[in-house]
Amino acid sequence: MEVERVQDISSSSLLTEAIPLEFIRSEKEQPAITTFRGPTPAIPVVDLSDPDEESVKRAVVKASEEWGLFQVVNHGIPTELIRRLQDVGRKFFELPSSEKESVAKPEDSKDIEGYGTKLQKDPEGKKAWVDHLFHRIWPPSCVNYRFWPKNPPEYRVVNEEYAMHVKKLSETLLGILSEGLGLKREALQEGLGGELAEYMMKINYYPPCPRPDLALGVPAHTDLSGITLLVPNEVPGLQVFKDDHWFDAEYIPSAVIVHIGDQILRLSNGRYKNVLHRTTVDKEKTRMSWPVFLEPPREKIVGPLPELTGDDNPPKFKPFAFKDYSYRKLNKLPLD
Fold first, then answer.
1. pTM score, two decimals?
2. Is 165 a catalytic residue?
3. How far apart are CA 66 and CA 69, in angstroms?
């Protein structure tokens, strides 16, 4: 069965200025109705080059407890490398359909790697205005080049270089978050599988949408991951839910947006918050983003770290193997 890609739907919809019914969200989700229009609180920004390490640690911990999301600047990933990452990703999505389909997720695949459109069940049968590409970038034992584009030719070398930098940044942040819990620096990294933890690259491609007031690029969700490190292009769209409102996230060139995901929420026994977020789309411009999800290996059992629980602080979450947690969440099954 051939899957209709949103990129193709966008091309035909822009001519009619209408979108198919399955992309129109209910009023409780429509961005025109639900986006907060007053003064927006600033999402925390942390400068990792600040020589005052205690100040950096306090800022990261506070943002993770209160928001579950923050932006980091002077993070050590070269600006030029981010530009190249975005350049090769954009070029892939500009290729003819037949070339993109050569790395498509197989229909019978139980994994998410590959080029695709639909990701999870929607209770109302609605669709998101996005196409995507998933592939693991680390560790080498998990990398399957079958799902890495052959074009543009420099795609592989850029992603391999980016993997080294994003791994280093994630380890720095997890070290800070571990110490913020009063634990040794390696605690959260080990809780996610240590050296076996997997880094999954995703490219989100949100083509122009004639009715951005009615559609969503990605509906409200929290990430399955431990943490997610994301770089967007210059077209705004990320929204964060806090204090019962949807707020627009400010675009900061070359910043990395850090999301606390479900597994850090669970390992920290609820101390760090998993951020509820969604993506809006633009009428004239293509929005793109490059999240890297740091995830436990499939068989790794993740639950509250024993050092954080006791008689006065019982475990708030049931331990699950990551594969079972993912399956249950994507299929809207209970997690308690």
1. 0.96
2. no
3. 8
